[in-house]
Write a structure and sequence with these properties.
By secondary structure, the chain is an alpha/beta fold. The protein has helices at 37-41, 59-70, 85-93, 125-129, 155-158, and strands spanning 12-18, 21-30, 47-57, 78-81, 102-103, 105-111, 118-124, 140-141, 148-151. The strands form two sheets. The protein has a five-stranded mixed β-sheet with strand order 1-2-3-4-5. Strands 7-6-9-8 form a four-stranded antiparallel β-sheet. The chain is globular, with a radius of gyration of 16 Å.
Length: 162
């Protein structure tokens, strides 16, 4: 159940190791009861959070997620990888949402006015930062019809974390 008492997809937490790096993949819905203790229990640095599978986050989930990030030992660096659009919206709205974590890559929303298709494109931070500021969403073709798709958020807000 979510904070409003509606059925949801629970949060899945998968922990793996890539060499000396701990990778934690989150997928599903982050709410107040999300099982986030694995973040504080992770060993090795950096700790990589693969956030591509996070589909929603409630207001209580925002608080729980930020608390879990604060519980990660200070000697552990944190890297966010493949950050989902719902989490990127929180990054753009809440000051210091990602705390001391650096963002490596993130999904960006696009919309095709020709066919109505919505899509999320994975962007690498270094590629976006290669262009001079103010940072802009790269041109993307619609995956359905091939026509130009339009970035579907406010660029100044979405890219402000850079």
């Amino acid at each position: 159940m979510n904070d409003a008492g509606q059925a949801t997809t629970a949060l899945s937490v998968e922990v793996s190791r890539e060499g000396g790096i701990t990778v934690i993949a989150l997928s599903g819905f982050i709410d107040a009861g999300a099982p986030l203790t694995a973040l504080a229990e992770a060993t090795g640095s950096p700790l990589v959070l693969d956030l591509a599978g996070v589909r929603r986050i409630s207001s209580f989930g925002v608080s729980a997620f930020m608390d879990a990030l604060r519980d990660v030992p200070t000697e552990t660096s944190i890297v966010w990888r493949r950050v989902s659009v719902p989490l990127m919206l929180q990054v753009s709205m809440i000051e210091n949402f990602n705390g001391r974590a650096s963002i490596e890559s993130f999904h960006a929303p696009y919309y095709c006015a020709t066919c109505g298709h919505e899509q999320h494109c994975l962007l690498e931070v270094e590629a976006v930062k290669a262009a001079p500021a103010p940072y802009r969403a790269p041109a993307v073709a619609c995956a359905q019809c091939g026509r130009p798709a339009t970035f579907d958020e406010l660029e100044a807000d979405y890219f402000a974390f850079l």
